[in-house]
Amino acid sequence: MRSLHITVILLMIFGASCGKDKQPAIPYVFVQEHLYPNSLDYIPVGGYKYVNAGYRGIVIYRSLPDEFKVYERCCPYDPEKPNARIQVTKDNIIAIDSVCMSQYALPYGTPYGTGPSPYSLLTYNYSYDGETLYIFN
C-alpha cells in the first residue's frame, strides 16, 4: 500500500512538470475549402498559394504534381500575437513568421534556422482527386 502511495505521488510530480513545455494551442477554426490547383487556383510544383481560411490563413505548398502540404499561417510559437503571419520567402523553400522571425522548412513545416520556435506548423488535412483539392480539419 505504501509503495502505491509513493508511485502515485511520483506520477503527480513528474506529470505536472511535463506539461510546462506543451505547445501553445492555436484556436480551432472549422475548415472546409476546395481549390482547383491546375486551373483557376493554379499552383505550380514547388509553388504556393495563400487562402483566406483557418485561424490566420492557410498556405498551400505543392511539393509534387499530386502532393500538397497545407499549413496554418499562424505561428505555433505564440499564436496570440495579433499581426503574426507565416510568409513564404521568394525561393519557396523557407517560411518565416512576420513577428518572432521563426523559420520553417518547406515542404516539411518543421523549424529551421533562426527563431525561437521549436514547434512545427499546424497541418491541415487534404484530399486531391487530380482536379479538386479539398482542405479540411
Tell me about this structure.
With 137 residues, the chain is α+β, with helices and mostly antiparallel strands. It has one domain: Rieske Iron-sulfur Protein (3-layer Sandwich), CATH 2.102.10. The protein has one helix at 2-18, and strands at residues 32-35, 48-51, 58-64, 67-72, 86-88, 94-97, 103-105, 110-111, 125-128, 133-136. A four-stranded antiparallel sheet has the order 5-6-7-8, with no helix packed on it. Strand 7 (103-105) and strand 8 (110-111) form a beta hairpin.
Can you give keywords for this protein?
137 residues; 1 helix; Rieske Iron-sulfur Protein; 12% helix; four-stranded antiparallel sheet; alpha+beta
In percent, how helical is the residue content? 10-25%
Output mean pLDDT: 86
Total count of helical runs of at least 4 residues:
1
From the spread of the alpha carbons, the general shape counts as globular
The top-level CATH class is Mainly Beta
Question: Can you list the strand order of the major beta sheet?
Answer: 5-6-7-8
**In total, how many domains does the architecture comprise?**
1
Structural class: alpha+beta
CATH fold annotation: Rieske Iron-sulfur Protein
User: Distance between the terminal alpha carbons, to the nearest Å?
Assistant: 46 Å
What summary fits the major beta sheet?
4 strands, antiparallel
Q: What fraction of residues sit in β-strands? A: 25-35%
Radius of gyration: 19 Å
Q: Got a strand count?
A: 10
Order of helices and strands: HEEEEEEEEEE
CATH superfamily: Rieske [2Fe-2S] iron-sulphur domain
Which spans of ≥5 residues are poorly predicted at pLDDT below 50?
4-19
The oligomeric state is single chain
The assigned CATH architecture is 3-layer Sandwich
